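Model it.
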Amino acid sequence: MIVLPTLNGGIKLVIERDQDWDNLKSISDDAAEDFSKRFSLLMDEDSMWDEIVEPELKDQFSSQVKFVKKQVELAFDNSVDDFEEELPEISITREETELWYGALNQARLSFEDKFRKEVEALKETGKIENGEVVRALFRNQFYFGFQSEIIAHTMD
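Modeled.
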């Protein structure tokens, strides 16, 4: 996948291969965890976090993931019909990059929770036996690289 800046301050994703689509489609699956609950564990019981802040955070987090999922699905569906001679693209406005960044961040945090033991073992042994973990590592690197491009091209 190629990430290019646009004249309006956003970015354009140019999809080069099927693996790019697989990685983009995986964002919503990897970000499925409810992170708003995680933060409530850090708060004092008297803070009313559960009643006031958590619902808003939950809505914000889920809206980021839903937006990205919808954008990827729409671009994929259109690429089958409209982009037969050109590489498919996803245009992301400057305002939308925050939604994408948030969804990618959720996917990466979820990955770190889910595969923490395997990553520690990799550091010690240099080997990973589980193919799911290998694929997750590649997706995590993809997400990190994508976030880096968002920062480089759209955030001051």
